[in-house]
Amino acid sequence: IYLKIFLLLRRRGKLAALSIAAMVILVGVPLWWKTTQTYRAWLPVAQINELAKLQLQLSADVEVVFARGTATPEQQKKVPVTQTQDEDHAVDEDTTLRYRHETRYRTATVMEEDALKQPTAAEADLSLHRLSESPCGSLVIYVIPESSSLLPENVNVYIGQRRTALLRIGAQMKVGKTLKQLLAHLEPRVKQILQVMSFSHNDITAALSDRVRFSPDNKESIADSMRAFKSSPGYEITFSLLNPDPKSHRLHWDIEGAVQTYIQPLLTKLSPVANFSLDSQILYYAMLGVNPRYDSSRSAYILNADSLAHVINPVEARLGSNAASSNPVLNFLLYVPDAHHSPLYIHDHKKREVQTNAFHSPRWGGIMVYNVNGFYQTGTNFPVDVNINMAKVMGVFLAQLRLLLGVQSTAPPSSFQVAPCGSSGLADWELDRLMWSRSVENVATATTTITSLAQLLDQIGNIVINDNIAQQVSSAVTSLQLAVAELEVGNLGFALQYSKEAILASEKAFFDPSLLHLLYFPDDQKFAIYIPLFLPMCVPILLSLLKIVSEVRQRRREKQAKKD
């Protein structure tokens, strides 16, 4: 009886061990695996890999209009005609650029002929603009005869404030020539105009500075790209008046009126590129932190170019910052020297006096020294009331603001005449050049950000990819594809808008707090947690299974021995 009970208990023990083992393997392990696995939402990896090979095509529409007297009747019969010119550039192994200019040749209409009869080129430019406004990113070149009085004798090309240019050709260019020969003569001159008014290869490669390396012969574009702020959805502009000695002078500046008159028109025109916010402040007892050198021959103090770099840091500590905004800050400082260090002049590296008495620091802002020593007379009662000439100050700050925002103008040939910017401080074609560069820069930056994020998530498999991150990544990829497509067809406004959406979505996904690797346990820490939990439970089960297996093998050997 005891033997039967022993065998029965032994059999039940084996069945219990097998049941527990089966429960652990079939239910426990899958349940543990499912409840502890890292959630990773789907990402469009294939599309991201396609965008990593950046292939951009920039297309611009150009219209060349022949005025009366610039083409023969036989030549006029063969227009309108359209020509397309492609220019390919392999920037590096992952980046290729194609520039396409679709040029349409036609004759001027009656109203355009009347507009070209204006006494000056500026009036003709305004009249032509009133007739029809050219789309963003396009250009219209009016070919006028040599006898036209719109341009001076030594000027062959006039570039207006809008998206139009006047090109004068000689009478010998059309006589005895076919239309094809006439267009061939015009082609190099049209290219010169495009280099000034439209995008250039140097501007586009400078916009790709974060993605590709510059060649040594591209020093001008390197300097321009390093000077200007990187593309951003918004900028903070701060105007500061530095009064180091309030006992010497009491300063009055109409900063609000000056901003509305000189700065706001420019910012309004730049609204498609970014949003701007402005503020101003007056800092008392704010010193430059550099002792200027006294020049006895001029009875003035000199600030050398070598010491300008040491001026910014002491002043910057007093400026403060807007902690509520992550946008870049452009600082414009107006420094009025105290009576003991006045007048103060800035000299360049060649020891020559800077006419504006100002300098700018790349991706930071500008500083202007405003001397008021003329107010100090013998027997003057201090403090002296000083009214600052805001027109003089804002003229300097406006020029610095254009440089810091990346408004770059290629130096035109000697036979070119470029019209002044006007009250807005920015010509339409200058805005187009900036929009081309910003669109390409945004596309390149967003592509690099998304590609880096995809590589990071692929290398670190235990980072959770939430649905909102996947949505931001998909949104960025979609916006990038749309921006590239709009650049290809020449819709500059839409391309810039989609590129801004792409860079916002990509950075929001990349800097999401849930992607921080420190929030998750490395593999060695996981083993340290799971081993004390599972080892006491698994050892008895494994020993029971090993004993059952050994008994089964023993029985097989005994059966085999009996058969033998």
TrEMBL record:
InterPro entries: PtdIno-glycan_biosynth_class_S
UniProt KW Transmembrane keyword: yes
Top-level taxon: Eukaryota
GO cellular component: a single term: GPI-anchor transamidase complex
Bilayer-spanning residue ranges: 15-33, 527-549
Keyword Transmembrane helix among UniProt keywords: yes
Pfam short name (any one): PIG-S
UniProt protein name: Phosphatidylinositol glycan anchor biosynthesis, class S
GO biological process: attachment of GPI anchor to protein; GPI anchor biosynthetic process
Family: Belongs to the PIGS family.
Biological or metabolic pathway of the protein: Glycolipid biosynthesis; glycosylphosphatidylinositol-anchor biosynthesis
Major location category of this protein: endoplasmic reticulum
Keyword entries, A-Z: Endoplasmic reticulum, Glycoprotein, GPI-anchor biosynthesis, Membrane, Transmembrane, Transmembrane helix
UniProt subcellular location: Endoplasmic reticulum membrane
Membrane topology according to the record: Multi-pass membrane protein
